[in-house]
Amino acid sequence: MSSILxxxxxxxxQTATVADRIVDVLADRGHDATALDAADLPPAxxxxxxxxxxxxxxxxxxxxxxxxxxxxxxxxxxxxxxPTGFFQLSLSSAVTDxxxxxxxxxxxxxxxxxxxxxxxxxxxxxxxxxxxxxxxxKRVVMKRIAREATGDTDASRxxxxxxxxxVEAFAADFxxxxxxxxxxxxxxxxxxx
Length: 193
Known about the structure:
By secondary structure, the protein is α/β, with parallel strands linked by helices. The chain folds into two domains: about 5-125 and about 160-180, 3-Layer(aba) Sandwich (Rossmann fold), CATH 3.40.50.360; about 130-160, no CATH class. About 40% of the residues lie in helices and about 20% in strands. It contains six helices and seven strands, in the order E-H-E-E-H-H-E-H-E-E-H-E-H. The strands form two sheets. Strands 2-1-3-4-5 form a five-stranded parallel β-sheet, sandwiched between helices. Strands 6-7 form a two-stranded antiparallel ribbon. Helix 4 links the parallel strand 4 (about 85-90) and strand 5. The chain is globular and about 50 Å long. The N and C termini lie close together (about 10 Å). About 35% of the residues are buried. Mean pLDDT is about 90; it is low at about 185-193.
């Protein structure tokens, strides 16, 4: 069993929900997994307590949460010393339009270039439109973006684009990678190793 941190940044909560689902998958495989919001890390936070790390962020106006960028930049050496992965949520990953999907990949590339981090695994998931949580100005901006991306402009409801099978497959793949790299195995179905 490995100790795995899932450190994330979130705007309206979808990335937190994805982080929690990843933690569930990792725990089901026998790992001690913990999800923490990068904006709420305690001052004495010690990354050395974890064998592996997943970092997640969402895109808002072309940028990831500053707390996630700061976490990765401040811990780049510690991250390089253990198995790591990065996952991103965006509207651009929710559509089939290749230009928009390329935009989503570009956001990841820019983040990795800016932080100098090279994660072992990367995933891009569709996010959500949380009209119910947006203020007036953000709702107007998001409706404009959504009109071009998904067409979902009815602000009286929220929309979720996350493919939960993709999330679970990514978490399982990361768990297998950690198990292979650190020599840990997930328990057998009857609980034996």
